[in-house]
Amino acid sequence: MRPTLRIAIAIEKTLRSPFWFGFWVTVILWMIATTNLFKLTDFGRNTSLDALTKLYPYESLYPDNSAFFVFVNIDDNSLKTLGQWPWPRQISAKLIDKISHSGAAVIGVDVLFAERDRFSPDNLSQSLGISKKEIASIGALNGDKMLGDIVKETPTVLAFALSNQKINNKETLPSHFVLMGDPPQNLLSAQALIQPISELEFAKGVGFVNTNKTEGMIRETPILAQFKDNFFPSLALDMLRVAQGASNHVMKQSELGESILIKTGQLNIKTNDEGSFIFHHGHTDRFAQIPASEILSNKTFDLKNKIVIVGASAAGLGDIHSSNLEDDIPGPLFHLQLMDQVLSERFITYHIFYDRLIFLFCAGISILFSFITLRVAYRYVLIAIPAIAVLLIFLSVERFLHVGFIFNTPIALLLLFSGSMTTYFSQIAQKIILGRAVEKDIADAKDVQTTLFPAPDSISNVSGGVIPYKSLSGDFIDYFKVGNKICFIEGDVSGKGIPSALLMARSVALFRLFARHNLTADAIAKRINDELYSHGTADKFVTSVMGWYDMEKQELTFVNCGHNPVLLLDESGHQLFDQTSPPLGVVGKEDFSPSIVTLAYTPLSVLYIVTDGISEAMIKVTKDKEQEIGMEGLLRITQKQTTLSAIERAKQTLALIRSQKLRATDDATILVIMYEEIASEASPSKNENQS
Prior knowledge:
The protein has 691 residues and is of the alpha+beta class. Helix content is 41%, strand content 22%. It contains 21 helices and 30 strands. The strands form 8 sheets. Strands 1, 2, 3, 6, 7, 15 and 16 form a 7-stranded mixed sheet that branches. The chain has a 5-stranded antiparallel sheet with strand order 19-30-27-24-25. Strands 20-21-22-23-26 form a 5-stranded antiparallel sheet, with helices on one face. Helix 14 (378-403) packs antiparallel against helix 15 (409-452). The longest helix has 44 residues, at 409-452. It starts with a helix and ends with a helix.
């Protein structure tokens, strides 16, 4: 079989069966999730992390650790007090010196000192055109040297940046890394380093400050990067080394290769295979903040054994970022968050293998419920799938809180619900489409059915009409001239809907066939009964009144086969004629022998034949009570129609149903036959030709 034919068959099956719709939607979603097409898996993992962080911020699990950290803030007020940035290096030196004398265990400086001090004697000499000797004589200090001397003597970690552009400078930064085993292959790498000036090369530590942003926020950050054959730590990671007095970081890959393990002093740190650290953010107002201007004032602060980071929150310095918990966070606070998590051993991890395993499980469950949806009530599916979803969410929360593991819950839930929901809604869509098609067919059938009934004014002295209770009618009437006689029939098929409408059409066709042969009323009834009994079903039958009105003899003959009583009005009053045989199609020909009723017709004679949709119509007798009008009610209606023609009598009676003055509970049908002399025209009527 050709591939195109296979595809065509698969598409045809999908369009025909709601199950295959759900199956293929689930399979396609599973393939997209497993391959991370369109970054769907990353989106789901980030969404899961964001939701869990908002539900359980970091400080809700570790409320006390923030006491170890201090943020010395170069804020707007400090710039106003000490002057615009960058400050002379001697101010930065003094700031670090005062923090060190306050007892800080480590001082991280989240500021790049990649260029020389603009207030140094060399720069002033060039910009002012004055010799260095004259500059020195008026007290200008070499701020770069002062800062270099301070960082050499204090536990200071300076910042540098990774760059993807070639920079012509001499890389002199120490690595402080010891590699065990094979080197990692997926680390962040750089083309160059934007490093501190040479006067600062003897700082106790250096670390890069590059980070990652996705969707405008920082969810994770690299803490390990590679330049040429050397490995370098982030600023926060090297601060932890210096705080412990450790000389190096020891690094190796995990046995499965899914993570990198780093030992820094007494701390064991875990990253993903790209050397990135995932944040479990907390609210950053938990960290103590001291303006840099206050540190440089005469105030004293006890920073003994504190981890201190110096950085800027001033809006003009541009070091403001967002997390999945807060906006407008100064960059240094991300370093504090990272160190807080490391000290708490709070490592957030995920694994692609477990993601794919849960995706496969949820896809399998989804396909199973797609199959079940078509075979049981959907309410059971609506109980089972949410129960599995709740279990999955509970497991996701429990693993996150206890071991920091992230399940890709949103994509797993999407897969779980995709199959059964698609199957269910495609089933509904098919029903709607099928329903509309059926509605159109019924509307067309209604139009066709209407053509089976004679026009109300086709014969002047005979008229009638049918009001279907629903779309299609099981009631019918027919009448037409055969010579000087008029044959007529009114019938009511048991039941409702399409089967009754089809049997109605068949009954009309049989009546026309046998009446055309000028058979007597009882003979026509017998022939129709034989046909319906022989080829019908036990639960379908037809009640009917059929007969002839001979306008030459002014005689009316009819049979009543299980139908409503026939009402005759004449000069003597009124009479009711009950059924003379069982309904058509109930018994065989040996048990079917209808009796003919023969009436002499006079100018005042009027015959009313109605179905139970009229005789059993409901009329209000009190505000909250209704009752059937019965044949007595019909008689009262006819007594108000003495001056009307046949067509007017039929229309007026049916108008009571249409206006809801009488509430019908079934198809409502009436046939009215009045006295008529023989017409002078010999030509057959339009209706007869149609017959």
